[in-house]
């Protein structure tokens, strides 16, 4: 997605060979106009999939997830990483290990909101090794909901998550794919169709 690539080039910052900082429009401040266009792009790429729910994980997946759900006219559910005061029963959980942060989180969704037969589109801001996406897939599997696709804002194509998920048969659509990062330098990979 050209607009997103331009935004990444203009405002993104490669902090190292593995980490891209995009705090000005995705991970801290959010650009709602860009978010809306990304939501429309995801909806287009997964057209005809009869999606009933969009599923993401707090916090940075909520922006793009909500705009996608708005375009598709379906609910957005975000998995929680911390214990909720009010989310107390009938929980579906999965364990997600973050290599970037070296910590393991139990992610949680109520089985009121992801139910058998749902056709779920998973949305997230970054795809690195794919642990977060795998945790969300696991939650859907536990309730016999079908994952019809995975939409990612920024895929780090030099890490294995995207390849592994595609090898497993998932349609993974990334709006920008990064081939390489170097301090002060961002190189994109070619776009690919799921
Ligand atoms: P994975 O989901 O592919 O396994 O990735 P990983 O465990 O490495 O990611 C852990 C957290 O770090 C996630 O956010 C993910 O979005 C974020 N992340 C991974 N690589 C990058 C990067 O290059 N740049 C930025 N800005 N973030 C990255 P999170 O902990 O869930 O936080 P948030 O959603 O509350 O922001
Ligand atoms: Na993030
Ligand atoms: Na995330």
Automatic annotation (TrEMBL):
Keyword Zinc: no
Pathway(s) served: Purine metabolism; XMP biosynthesis via salvage pathway; XMP from xanthine: step 1/1
GO cellular component terms attached to this protein's record: cytoplasm
InterPro entries attached to this UniProt entry: PRTase-like (IPR029057), PRTase_dom (IPR000836), Pur/Pyrimidine_PRTase (IPR050118), Xanthine_PRibTrfase (IPR010079)
Alphabetical GO biological process terms: purine ribonucleoside salvage; xanthine metabolic process; XMP salvage
Subunit structure: Homodimer.
Protein name as it appears in the record: Xanthine phosphoribosyltransferase
